[in-house]
Design a protein that fits this description.
There is one protein chain. The protein is mostly helical and 84 residues long. The chain folds into 2 domains: 43 residues, no CATH class; 35 residues, no CATH class. Helices cover 64% and strands 0% of the residues. The chain contains 6 helices and no strands. The chain is flat, with a radius of gyration of 19 Å.
Length: 84
């Protein structure tokens, strides 16, 4: 979620409609309840990827977090040494 929206939600408690979420690129689309499950299942079928590929994508995406976790040094983290 973009910072400007996080701040607005946190400071004002504003709630967003499905249309507003789409306008801010928080969601791809909004559907009425009676269509939702069919749309979700159609979308999910398109995600049938080889699990090894998805795992590697996650490892690349979260590489900095993984490096921190591998340090296994809580004192290092507490001291603010999180740049990896």
């Amino acid at each position: 979620m973009p910072t400007y929206l996080v701040e607005e939600v946190a400071l004002t408690g504003k709630r967003y409609t499905g249309t507003e979420c789409a306008e801010h690129h928080l969601i791809v689309a909004a559907y009425p309840n009676e269509e939702l499950m069919d749309r979700v299942m159609a979308f999910a079928k398109g995600l049938n990827k080889y699990r090894g590929v998805v795992g590697e994508m996650k490892r690349v995406l979260h590489a900095n977090i993984i490096k921190l976790m591998e340090k296994d040094d809580l004192e290092y983290i507490k001291q603010g040494n999180i740049a990896v």
